Amino acid sequence: MPPANPPSVPASVAPAVALDRSESDVVLIVDDVPDNLAVLHDALDESGYTVLVATHGEAALQRAAQALPDIVLLDAMMPGMDGFEVARRLKASPATAHIPIIFMTGLTETEHLVAALEAGGVDYVTKPIKPREVMARMGVHLGSARKARQDARQAREARNALDAFGYASITVRASDGRIVWQTPLARELLQSYFGEMGPDGAPTAFGQWAPEPVQAWLRRHVLADNAAELLAASLAEPPRLAVEQGARRLTFRLHQQAGDSAGGGDWLIVMREVSDAKIIESMSLSFKLTAREAEVLYWVVKGKINRDIGDILGASPATVKKHLERVFAKLGVETRTAAAAMAMNRIRQFHPQFEG
């Protein structure tokens, strides 16, 4: 006999919060017939799956949004909202569109099977349900779904790693300049340097397009008549775009094609900001200098003499000389030239775009 209260998603699960997948895959069964639910629930539960159930369409949509199951077993024919409509709504929502749906149907006519696939199903099984057959079909699609999640997670981690090291990244469609995706740091930098830009370079509230200087640079190196030939040659990286804002400089590097080549394709662009403050902070941390010692060393690298450095920092040349002596001691050098060379080498490790 089926349980009086079939298992369902816990009330404490918040919307759009996925269950823990570390131990088992999560399966949502949608069927208005209790006997069908009981048979499948028990078989899947014994096989180690985490099983959720719904007995009608609205409950199925709610549970899917709450728990984000790894796969849905969906009855095609239910009173009220049928399985075809449930599938269409799941596929229409960005949060659940990725979830594979296997239809369960007693209808074997070709038009019904076609309707199931057109509604978003990846597979179907016919009634009466055979749990072993269902699990075999599930295994195929869960493997694909698991790989897709892993690839997406790795992509997110890679983008987050770029941000962590100060390299922001965006993907831009060459044909119209639309930003396909961007890391948080990239959005912050674009807003800081350009504001929100529209397709014609004018300000917009949405930030969906790359700034016009970036679009023009991308078109020049991707859509020009000889662009494909130059890129294929790979003899040298295309010239970088640099945008300056006071003491800050934002550079753009064309990294790789990230999508279909039609119309120029989508291109991954890596951005890096260089500023006096960031370079001075890097030197301070790298050489264990005080903030003022790092400032003095920075201006030595820039070729300034003690008097000029004093004017810049609001200190006397004698004070600058004392700071510089401590810098020499910490770097293990005896001359300005040696200190500048050591600092320049270290700066270029962390800020390749820096020009002394």
From TrEMBL:
Superkingdom of source: Bacteria
CDD domains: LuxR_C_like, REC_PA4781-like
Entry-linked PROSITE patterns: HTH_LUXR_2, RESPONSE_REGULATORY
Keyword annotations from UniProtKB, A to Z: DNA-binding, Phosphoprotein, Transcription, Transcription regulation, Two-component regulatory system
GO cellular component: cytosol; protein-DNA complex
PANTHER family (alphabetical): REGULATOR OF RPOS, TWO-COMPONENT RESPONSE REGULATOR ORR33
Name of the protein: DNA-binding response regulator
Source organism of the structure: Acidovorax carolinensis
